[in-house]
Amino acid sequence: KGVKRALLPGRFQPPHWGHFRLIKWVLERFDEVIIVIGSAQKSHSFSNPFTAGERIEMLRLGLKDVGIDLSRVFMIPVTDIETNFVWPRWVEMFVPRFDCVVSGNPLVARLFFEYGYCVITPPMFDRERYSATVVRRLMLKGDAEWRSLVPPSVAEYIESIGGVERLRRVTEV
Ligand code: NAD
Question: Model-level pTM?
């Protein structure tokens, strides 16, 4: 009775192989996934270099690369609010109905659990390498190895918008 949907919040700054493996993992267990692009108001900083729109483009490119049927995926940007307690309710306003929340982020998991949702902690896929912080640090160092941590189409997109240059500029003091 009805499709089963999982909510998957993240910042995706930028989306890397760990995120795409996670999305695949979710779609092996649910009919559809709602990817919440969190901190949607943020961009042009070291922790959040890319706009919500750019993150949508990157997620779409990567999902196509890994052969995920985009009709099973929603992507919805949501801005942050000051009040953690109210955040799950805030997210609800922007997204279609969902059954469970999938998150490896303890704060996200706790907030949705206390609010009454089913929360699933997914496995971590090679977390040492597949981490957006690692990707951004390598970019800053000028180490081309960052490209191997994201799908090829995502690496091309980042280069096409001057993403590495942007990261350098916004972290200059
Ligand atoms: P993220 O991009 O770091 O991670 C997204 C998801 O991918 C997480 O579940 C994470 O565990 C998982 N992941 C990352 N690397 C992985 C790997 N190698 N293998 C498997 N899974 C991996 O995003 P995040 O920090 O979890 O994003 C949470 C968002 O929710 C942020 O935008 C935050 O601001 C927002 N938030 C807002 C409020 C508020 O507004 N009050 C409160 C809580 C959270």
Answer: 0.98
